[in-house]
Design brief:
Elements (H helix, E strand, L loop, with lengths): L6 H10 L27 E2 L2 H6 L2 E16 L11 E14 L2 E2 L2 E12 L23 H4 L18 H9 L9 E12 L16 E8 L20 E11 L2 E12 L10 E16 L4 E10 L27 E15 L2 E14 L9 E13 L15 E11 L25 E2 L3 E2 L6 E11 L3 H4 L3 E17 L2 E18 L3 E12 L6 E13 L1
Parallel strand pairs: 1-4
Antiparallel strand pairs: 2-3, 2-22, 3-5, 5-6, 6-7, 7-8, 8-9, 9-10, 10-11, 11-12, 12-13, 13-14, 14-15, 15-18, 16-17, 18-19, 19-20, 20-21, 21-22
């Protein structure tokens, strides 16, 4: 294992190159105001009938094969559940009306179908979380406990996840069959007025949406749509955005979060109470970047379908880390220093503090920080698809150091994030109860990522290759059973994707996680997908 701790070196480098950047973890940044991830804005019409009938359809279809293999030691009670595989077809069809006096409506439905026989624990109806009050025999409610995980005769079972997995006989792949309305909202944005110096019409600087919608901020670290899974996360919310030149202000009030597990799952949704998302960004053209200040105030209502109370951060040991009410405030900088057409120095710096509130006031606060630097060299520039440079291939190397702190009682959590995009593709720090599952010891993630755009492009055209490596350790060591955990393990992954025929994409992806200190199992995952999309 690598024991190199780059924080002192990176901090010294930060003093020298504070004003350069691009992110090394997560997904590409999105615009923090007026962002429509699934559709384009429609023209304005003078008659309502014209606006209703002259809208735009968008369609997204993806078929994906996924396999999982966990390496349990010989004799482990879950050794026979070490594998899972699934072929899933996801289709999403949306329609956005034209605008009438700036108003428009949007609806999008999504359907997920498992095409092969169900060979996975999906975390939907196959995951049972019974409520126990101490008088009900466990075996009468959920039989099939494997040897070595026998529960007491009465009271709560000590290993609900393991017992569910044993009963299903497979490893976890959290995709399933479902039909769902992913977006259904009324929006408004003035058709003109956003850029008065432009030669033609330009959308206005004020917009709002009311209803079920997709909300993403920055690189998905705190608020995302979990785009990798079959069921995209959506939020019942009111959102208003305002731009004032280089300044962008976004506010959202959350009523409900529709999660990725589908209506049959106990973890289908979070009902929110007095929850607010605030994001303020300012463009810095001189640094080819932006600075962002944010506040995410989350208050979770209780969900009676789960064996713990949402919002408190308290759960039985067999559940693991769960969500808690919190206020997270932070600041983020991202920029790029162009040395030449063929060379960029990139950086991303972020700090936040998460303070438990309301039902979680018994917990203590933790900090988050992320320091990343990269270099881009080779081809002259990259097109807006991010797959092919103009000229020779483009190479990008990024080094990152990300910390989710622990205070010894609880660790920082990111329940609304697209967690799969962070801390490795094996999803060792993800769990259904809380979305994120930062262990009690927190996370220190040292990573290096190589991206190559347009490799052999003169022969095969546009393509992208990504190779990454993560070394995970605790922010604070802790005891787990008889093991003291200070080193979680390491992971490397590779992804290759190629667009073709305009709207198609083919990709393959693989990751390999090696556990240390008894934290988890060694895990390999493999995916291949074919996608068609237009909007």
């Amino acid at each position: 294992m690598v024991n190199f701790k780059p924080l002192p070196c990176l901090m010294a480098a930060a003093i020298l190159v504070l004003a350069q950047g691009v992110g090394a973890v997560g997904l590409p940044d999105v615009p923090n105001t007026h962002h429509n991830p699934h559709h384009k804005m429609t023209p304005n019409h003078t008659h309502m009938g014209q606006a209703l009938t002259n809208g735009r359809f968008d369609f997204w279809s993806r078929v994906r094969f996924e396999s999982v293999e966990d390496d349990f030691p010989s004799g482990h009670p879950l050794a026979d559940t070490n594998k899972a595989d699934m072929i899933v077809l996801r289709n999403a069809l949306g329609y956005t009306t034209g605008r009438f006096h700036g108003f428009y409506a949007r609806i999008e439905g999504e359907v997920n179908d498992v095409l092969n026989s169900d060979r996975a624990l999906n975390l939907d109806g196959d995951f049972t979380t019974p409520q126990f009050r101490g008088e009900t025999p466990f075996g009468a409610k959920l039989p099939g406990a494997p040897a070595g995980l026998k529960p007491p005769a009465f009271g709560p079972p000590p290993h609900i996840p393991a017992i569910n997995r044993h009963a299903e006989g497979y490893a976890i792949i959290p995709d399933n069959d479902f039909e769902e309305i992913n977006e259904a909202y009324i929006g408004w944005r003035a058709p003109t007025g956003g850029c008065p110096s432009a030669p033609g019409p330009c959308d206005g600087p004020l917009s709002f949406k009311l209803g079920r919608q997709t909300i993403i901020y920055d690189n998905h670290r705190w608020v995302g749509d979990v785009i990798w899974r079959g069921n995209n996360v959506a939020m019942d919310a009111f959102r208003v955005d305002k731009t004032l030149g280089k300044l962008g202000i976004s506010y959202a009030y959350l009523d409900k979060v529709k999660r990725l597990f589908g209506p049959d799952s106990a973890f289908d949704e979070w009902k929110m109470d007095d929850s607010h998302l605030i994001n303020i960004s300012y463009k810095l053209p001189q640094f080819n970047g932006k600075i962002v200040a944010y506040g995410y105030l989350l208050d979770f209502d209780n969900n009676p379908r789960t064996p713990f109370v949402e919002g408190t951060g308290r759960a039985p040991p067999f559940i693991g880390p769960v969500i808690f009410d919190s206020e997270t405030f932070g600041v983020r900088f991202k920029g790029r220093h162009e040395i030449s057409d063929r060379l960029d120095i990139q950086s991303e710096l972020e700090w936040a503090n998460q303070d438990p509130t309301d039902d979680a006031k018994h917990l203590d606060d933790n900090d988050y920080y992320n320091i990343e630097f990269g270099v881009r060299f080779g081809g002259t520039r990259v097109d807006n698809l991010g797959f092919m440079p103009i000229g020779e291939p483009t190479y990008q190397i990024r080094v990152g150091y990300e910390v989710l702190e622990s205070n010894g009682t609880n660790a920082l959590q990111t329940p609304l994030a697209t967690v799969h995009a962070f801390n490795g593709w094996a999803d060792k720090f993800v769990a259904a109860p809380g979305g994120s599952a930062t262990p009690l010891g927190g996370i220190e993630d040292t990573s290096i990522t190589l991206t190559v755009l347009g490799l052999f492009g003169n022969k095969i055209g546009k393509n992208k290759l990504v190779i990454n490596y993560h070394d995970y350790s605790t922010d604070r060591s802790y005891m787990s059973g008889a093991n003291r955990i200070s080193d979680y393990g390491d992971e490397w992954g590779i992804l290759w994707g190629k667009p073709f025929m305009g709207k198609f994409l083919f990709a393959i992806k693989y990751t390999d996680f090696k556990s240390e200190d008894g934290f988890s199992t060694d895990t390999e995952k493999f995916w291949t997908l074919l996608q068609y999309r237009f909007k």
